[in-house]
Amino acid sequence: MNDNIVAFIGAGNMARCVIASMVQAGYPAQNIIASNRTEPKLQALANDYGIQTTLDNIEAVTKADVIVLAVKPQMMGDVCQTLIERAPEIQEKLFVTVAAGLPVSRYESWLGDIRMVRSMPNTPSLVGLGVTGLFPSRCSNYEKSFVDAMFKGTGMTVWLEQEHEIDHVIAVTGSSPAYFFYFMQSMQQVAEELGFEPEQAKRMVAQTAMGAAKMALDSDSSFAELRAQVTSKGGTTHEAVTSFADQGLEAMVANAMQAAITRAREMAKTL
Ligand SMILES: NC(=O)C1=CN([C@@H]2O[C@H](COP(=O)(O)OP(=O)(O)OC[C@H]3O[C@@H](n4cnc5c(N)ncnc54)[C@H](OP(=O)(O)O)[C@@H]3O)[C@@H](O)[C@H]2O)C=CC1
Ligand SMILES: O=C(O)[C@@H]1CCC=N1
Question: Where does the chain show beta strands of DSSP type E?
Fold first, then answer.
């Protein structure tokens, strides 16, 4: 399996996360090639992970067995159409896309009846604690196993039966690192106003978030039960949590997640 050459078209944040986790999980760096329209990110990837790089998308896809499309959704049509015009033989290769919003049918309109896995990873993949949703189209079991192994190093993989579930994965795990960062950013800001140094405040908040997440992962208790363990009757936590509840935290979270899903659906129609 590790003999397959994997080409990443677009070497931005998400490509870096997946490449890092593949290499850390033991995938041979010489079998990974990344292409990007500008040089600096390629140099950084070559330095950090020892992978091959090129500024030429055609060179990358021509060498590849598996083509990972990792440009922004808005760029995807142009990139795919150029690839197929200049290297029509790639139609026989396995495609993986990481882009939000775009359905398999859109890729088929650009590239023909390709074999594809639609994926939705997230940035914690960079540290092996990501979650990746995967939806296969026309793939063999071998190809699904290969893609599963490719993403296993990112953390956890979740195979989906229906394509629309990718939009749900976006709301739950694809976009959600940003929700947690936003929450932590707000906490850091208050911690600084209370007099903690910025670095110290950041570490205090992040360490608490990591500790809470680890407790949840290591225990059978629900989030509500873990919350109850912190919340002494008549104590400080009760006041803070009541303040969140009074301000409508649950509705706020539900609305935000629905907004992510709605945007993914809009992108599917308009891009
Ligand atoms: N960031 C995230 O958390 C997640 C992102 N995604 C998806 O991943 C995809 C990429 O997002 P992200 O990594 O954040 O974006 P980035 O902007 O970080 O990466 C996109 C990369 O594509 C490069 N690029 C643009 N046009 C071309 C081209 N014609 N040929 C080659 N390379 C090109 C850009 O080059 P340059 O350096 O010149 O700008 C850039 O490095 C998106 O489709 C997004 O939906 C999915 C899950 C999570
Ligand atoms: O914001 C976005 O559209 C991408 C997809 C999920 C995370 N980032």
Answer: 6-9, 32-35, 52-54, 66-69, 94-97, 115-120, 130-137, 155-159
